[in-house]
């Protein structure tokens, strides 16, 4: 963690509800818990990020991977690190895990993607939203697809599987990651569960020896359900399989 600030990455396949949950979490932390939140997303809304977001039919493979990484490093310099230094909780809709999935879908080796992101801040918490692939396909059909990745045949099944692999990859490298099943839970409930995890982590941090600004752990009214800490799974197991075959 960087000062009092934290970096929370909201990740998951297209249509799972990342943007919706990021917005709900931001509102909850700001309005109910008076936390300073920097809500952001990748690709960013800068010219570089917009080129990547709108350019998925033009840029592919290593070119796309470098475009995304360049946008991420600029994002870190200009927005994420300054916000963390101010003590804010940065909630980022898509981050490194997305690259470990989408660039791999695009034919780039996972280790290569990881090395390209070597100097990027590790998130304090990765929130991996999952849902049964058929649910994802239906949500994308209702909302409309936004990119070449989402239009790819069977994209929901492919992304679902690759996010499970990325979760294991990150957990093996000691990146804290929780997985939440968004198949049936509504966005506000998911936001409350995440807020509970984030505020608990923040409280533990502020209770670290030598800190004068101790804050009691804040309760999260209405939070229910269970977040699975990926490293807690049995060795070798993929992310939660309770929705497999559902
Ligand atoms: N938990 C949820 N349950 C049901 N529908 C949801 C949920 N979260 C989001 N949605 C809907 O699914 C669609 C995709 O959500 P969105 O936030 O755009 O996903 P993403 O950012 O992951 O691509 C939207 O129409 C949204 O209203
Ligand atoms: C963050 C990230 C995005 N992308 C690309 C894929 C997506 O098509 C595009 C935009 O992300 P996406 O979240 O799907 O867009 P929207 O918010 O409009 O639904 O950026 C990557 O290829 N790798 C990444 O690491």
From TrEMBL:
The UniProt record lists the keyword Transferase: yes
Domain Thymidylate kinase-like, residue spans: 10-159
UniProt KW keywords: ATP-binding, Kinase, Nucleotide biosynthesis, Nucleotide-binding, Transferase
Short name of one Pfam family: Thymidylate_kin
SUPFAM superfamilies given in the database record: P-loop containing nucleoside triphosphate hydrolases
Catalytic reaction(s) noted: dTMP + ATP = dTDP + ADP
Sequence segments annotated as region (Disordered): 204-246
Gene Ontology MF terms in the entry: dTMP kinase activity
Keyword Kinase annotated: yes
PANTHER family to which the protein is assigned, alphabetical: THYMIDYLATE KINASE (PTHR10344), UMP-CMP KINASE 2, MITOCHONDRIAL (PTHR10344:SF4)
Family indicated by similarity: Belongs to the thymidylate kinase family.
Known role: Phosphorylation of dTMP to form dTDP in both de novo and salvage pathways of dTTP synthesis.
Protein name listed in UniProt: Thymidylate kinase
Native organism: Streptomyces cylindrosporus
Gene: tmk
